[in-house]
Amino acid sequence: LPEIQRHIGKFLSVSDLKACSLVSRAWAESMVPWIWWSITLGPSTPLPPPEAMDRHFHQTRSLSFIRENGMNSNLYPLFNQLQSLHIVDPPLGSLEQLQPFTDLICRNGSTIHTIVQEGNPSLPAGVLRAILECPSLKQLTITKATFLERDLEEQMLQTCTRLTHLTLHTAHFSDMNLWQSNGLVFRHLESLRLSNVHSQVQLEILRQSPNLQRLVLTEKETISKADFVQVVIPSCPKLCALV
């Protein structure tokens, strides 16, 4: 390490200094993937030199995307092996303006297993559709999303069959009938957190989650004693945590 040469280098022989140099170089090379493993990007983020981004952004596995006033979409193609995506204040605009961001999600769809979306704007339908199409998605958090199109709502149902963790904050669904008697089972779902979601949707998700272990409800979201006894207890026999 540089500290070795600076502080104790004068006490070492030339051969020992060479050995220290080799160790330092090997340490630096081994740490590069970890340095770039998780990064946060936003309009106020100081970016590294272009050559560094070209060389290392493909090593990023966890990306936090904070959009305050927009971000250079030329950076999106540099990410192609993301496993986790955290979206704070999703981008708004025309389909053409959203396309680079949507392409980012689609390009990493086979590797992404965790997506967290937060912020005030409702998630645009095009971005939401790209998220739900990720085949490896296991953990999903959605804040402020409206499912106006029937095929999008059906896609949400199909996605639930793959998820292990689902968090819904202020999600509006247009067709309650889709959630009833659809023949689907959310057999992988282990953790569920709900806030400001239609009570019927809540019950139908619970009814179809036989392996649910953890259920989190906000103070505004309550399940009646009758529904808990008649729906939750028989439908979720593995439930062991209720918050």
Structure description:
This protein has helices at 2-7, 14-35, 50-56, 95-107, 125-132, 150-160, 199-207, 225-235; strands at 38-41, 62-66, 84-88, 114-118, 139-147, 165-173, 191-197, 214-217, 241-242. The chain contains 8 helices and 9 strands. A 9-stranded parallel sheet has the order 1-2-3-4-5-6-7-8-9, covered by helices on one side. The protein has 2 domains: 1-33; 34-242, Leucine-rich repeat, LRR (right-handed beta-alpha superhelix), CATH 3.80.10.10. It has 243 residues and is an alpha/beta fold. The protein is elongated and about 80 Å long.
The proportion of residues in beta strands is: 15-25%
* Mean pLDDT rating: 84
Task: Give the H and E element order.
Answer: HHEHEEHEHEHEEHEHE
CATH topology of the largest domain: Leucine-rich repeat, LRR (right-handed beta-alpha superhelix)
* Spatial extent as radius of gyration: 23 Å
- Helicity, in percent? 25-40%
Let me know the largest β-sheet.
9 strands, parallel
The count of DSSP E runs of length 2 or more, i.e. the number of strands, is 9
What best-fitting shape do the alpha-carbon axes yield? elongated
Number of helices: 8
**How would you classify the helix and strand content by structural class?**
alpha/beta
Note poorly predicted spans. none
Q: What count of domains describes the coordinates?
A: 2
Report how far apart the termini are: 48 Å
> What is the CATH architecture annotation of the largest domain?
Alpha-Beta Horseshoe
Strand order of the largest sheet: 1-2-3-4-5-6-7-8-9
CATH class of the largest domain: Alpha Beta
InterPro entries: F-box-like_dom_sf, LRR_dom_sf
Organism: Lunasporangiospora selenospora
Protein name: F-box domain-containing protein
